[in-house]
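Annotated sample (chain length 167).
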Amino acid sequence: MDNSDLLNTLVDRTSLLEFHDEEIDPGDNLTFGPHFLIITKILCDKTLNNNAIKSTMLKAWGLPQKTQINTVGPDTLAFLVESEEDRRLILRLTPWSFRGNLLVIKPWLPEKALEEVDLSRFQIWAHVIGLPIILVNKRSAQAIGDMIGKFVHANLATESHRWRKAL
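Output written by the structure step:
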C-alpha cells in the first residue's frame, strides 16, 4: 500500500467520527480544580535545562514547591498555580527572563489547545534614559513604543517623573 492509499484510508475512517458538545459530562475531570494555567516559553537559541527553569521561576514567583509544572515542548512549560491572584501577579509583572533569555508568559485556558496560545507576541518594558526633560511625556513614550512594536502604556503617574529624565 503506497502513502496516498494509506492517507485515503485514514481519511475515510476518520470521516465517520463525530463529536458533540453535549456529550461532555460536566462530571468528567476536564477542569484543573482550583488551579490556573500559565504557559511559558523561553526564547533562546539553545535548549535549556527545564528543571533549572522550574526551580528558578518557582522562587522568583514565590510559588510553593508542590506547584505542578509540566514540560509541553522544547523550552515550553505549563505551570498550574493555585490562585487567580498568583496568576494575575505573574502576568502583570511580565516580562520575565531566565539567564538573560526572554520568558514569554501567557494564560492558558484549559479549553484551548496549546497551538491556540499565541507565544509569538508579548509585552516588554522599555526604559529610555537620557531624554531631555521636555520629551519625558506620554506622547514621546507612545512614539518610542510604536517604533519598537505597539505602544501599550507609559508609567508616568506624576509630574515628578519628568525630572528623572527617563521613560
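Annotation: The chain is about 25% helix and 15% strand.
Annotation: Confidence is low (pLDDT under 50) at residues 23-31.
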